[in-house]
Design goal:
Blueprint lengths: L1 E14 L6 E3 L26 H8 L5 E4 L23 E3 L4 E3 L5 H11 L2 E6 L6 H12 L5 H8 L10 E4 L14 H18 L4 E8 L5 H10 L5 E9 L19 H7 L1 H21 L7 E10 L1 H4 L15 H16 L4 E6 L9 E4 L2 E4 L3 H10 L3 E8 L2 E4 L4 E5 L1 E8 L4 E8 L6 E7 L7 E7 L19 E6 L4 E4 L3 E8 L3
Parallel strand pairs: 1-19, 2-3, 2-11, 3-6, 6-7, 7-8, 8-9, 9-10, 10-11
Antiparallel strand pairs: 1-14, 4-5, 12-13, 14-17, 15-16, 17-18, 18-23, 19-22, 20-21, 20-23
Helix pairs in contact: 3-4, 3-5, 5-6, 6-8, 7-10, 8-10, 10-11
Amino acid sequence: MRADLRIDPNRRLGPVPRRLFGHLLARRMGVAEEGLHDPVHPTADAHGVRQDIEGLIRGLEPSVFRWPGGCTGTSYHWLDGVGPTAERPRNIDLHFGWETGYRFGTDEFLAWCRRMGAEPLMNWNMGTGTLEEAMAWLEYCNRNDGTQYAQLRKKNGHQEPYGVKLWQLGNETYGQWEIGHTSAANYAEIASEWAKTARKIDQQIEIVALAGALTHSLDWAATVIPIVAPHVDFMTFHAFWRKTVGSRGMPPANDPNLKGDEWYFVLAGPHLAEAYIHSLKGLIDTARREVPGARPMKVAITEWNTADFAVHMADNPSLATFQPYYDLRDALANAGFLNILLRNSDTVTLATSAQAFNVRGHVMANDKGVWREPIYWPLQMIAAKMGPIVLDTYSDSPGFTAPEYRLEGLQVLDAAATLDPKTRRVALSLVNRSRTEPLEVKLHLAGATVDAEASQTLLHHDDPMAMNGPDQPDNVSPRTTPLTLRDNTIELPPHSHAVVELQLGS
């Protein structure tokens, strides 16, 4: 198969927001609690953090960590997680009904973010929590005067405020599964009140409100956005797409009589998110024109991944239950989603995958070992190798459809491009979504040339369903090799993701 990829180095869409490369770190057992933070583990450092896990997460160059959830944050009471660890309680995570602890609390999380060079995104508890409790948490983190909770922070050994910028108003309250489930209108009114109050404590914070999920229509977002527009900085939605046809908890197929190729069905899933991004942008632009005092809102996606909820929701809190979960096809779907984020980076400026570690994690661990899932690699490759400026791209390649989603006109080649103006380096993220056919990609650079000698980092395996695990942690992993372009053509093997680094000619 052949494809044409057209790039104009002068058509610059804007900077790559580093906040796109963030992660959820839920406080649930086996993730933050007694997972990443496990003081009795042989690899734990002086802070109680497992270095075998931290090192792999660090390799993703994370920019943001969202905490303490997620669904598990809807019954999180932050005061239980500060002060002497020996005095902190163990209680029930009311969403899952599982026991959990508070040893990895606010101060531990924020200190870890600093060591990782990442920004915290704190999630207010709008399930069992109150406005007063939420504002006390903001005061604890950000105030420097002699008020009650600022003094409590100092008493706990942290003299300087943390200056946490990002705060999210609740989690998935549009869903009946969520503690605190409510209507869009009610959520919007409460969220507005919380946001207005929070800005009286700290005017510099950036506030994230809920815009729904792919499992819901745009009615929620259309109701919420005009009400919260004067008070928030981001509208967030959660984007999960099916790992297999028929998996529970995913957006339903539009017509059960429409049957497509399951291979392409999975790879098409991220384009549902792309459509939702475009719809939210329209609603936000309308609100900015029509609502007095509307803030210049952007779109956030604070949970995203390929997923099958029937599997991960069945996990209990024991580490031994976390097993290899993702295959190479899932990694290709995620690579396509990351390309979508780059292509829409003027609209989406904040994203946190769900999640960093365990429970659909990029890094996984059980009693047999620690490993990087195949989905780890597209995120690592793009975060590490793509440049600071997004370039416009146009591709023409063989197409496919996903009739279950009524998605048509999708292409086998999925591409994004960036430029580093200082070094004149162009980086391409290229996904060949064909299961069986190699792809020749002919580059067309308007008014520019590239050197024939380039570099390619390729994620590929002979088996498109290959997986990693504790016994074969590097079964699916990329290789970086020199690449010589012939007639400006890049050859991609089937079912592969490549980041190609090119040097613009003089």
